[in-house]
Design goal:
By secondary structure, this protein is mainly α. 58% of the residues lie in helices and 0% in strands.
């Protein structure tokens, strides 16, 4: 048994009892997941929703053919719109190599597809893992500020850093896409509702009885 397994599974079970299956990411299509993962960089999800609502056609073909200035105008609410327009073009060009077909991407191993995807302009580790997990169903755990906050506040016996935290969760849990999906979603939900960055609301947090760093 990997060190930390019991704690991680216990946290999952408590959160799952409280939140159930969240069926995250909020998107109509896998490609919309890809767009949302790029747009959410350095901004709140509310702004992403505003940007996505501006699209009359949210398809890879549209973004591929769209003038970049026009694309930047569409995604303006998400912030850093000129930069993110370039990133959306790059991600879409990568998807085009697979004929915009999810099943074609899924035939490539995670070990090969992740490094390839990380070489795409604008795709960092969190963006890559979010898209690979939520859009394509690969068992790759997403680490974000909420995950790092859980590790620090619980606390879990893990050092800081994306790769270290990712490996800690993956080595402590079954390699299961649905579990990774729901676990990360519940971490995000709980962080927004209770384990906030400032002024956390510990009293009604489902983890309050086992958290070692109550405020």
């Amino acid at each position: 048994m990997t060190k930390g397994t019991v704690d991680i599974l216990k946290i999952y079970q408590i959160l799952h009892t409280h939140y159930g299956n969240l069926d995250w990411w909020p998107a109509k299509t896998p490609y919309e997941v890809m767009v949302g993962a790029v747009l959410t960089q350095n901004t709140a999800w509310d702004n992403v929703e505003k940007a996505i609502a501006n699209f009359t056609d949210l398809s890879p073909q549209f973004i591929q053919d769209c003038d970049i200035a026009k694309l930047a105008e569409i995604i303006h609410p998400a912030g850093f719109f000129n930069q993110k327009a370039v990133y959306l073009k790059a991600v879409t060009a990568w998807f085009a190599k697979y004929n915009f077909d999810v099943s074609t991407v899924q035939r490539v191993s995670l070990e090969k597809i992740r490094p390839e995807f990380l070489s795409v302009k604008g795709v960092g580790k969190e963006t890559a893992d979010s898209i690979l997990l939520y859009a394509f169903g690969y068992p790759t755990f997403v680490v974000d500020a909420y995950t790092a906050r859980l590790c620090q506040r619980y606390p879990l016996d893990v050092d800081k850093g994306y790769d270290v935290i990712k490996a800690y969760f993956e080595n402590s849990l079954p390699h299961d896409t649905k579990l990774y999906n729901n676990y990360h979603a519940m971490i995000v939900m709980n962080a927004k509702e209770h384990c906030r960055k400032s002024r956390p609301l510990c009293e009604k947090c489902p983890l309050v009885d086992i958290c070692k760093k109550k405020f």
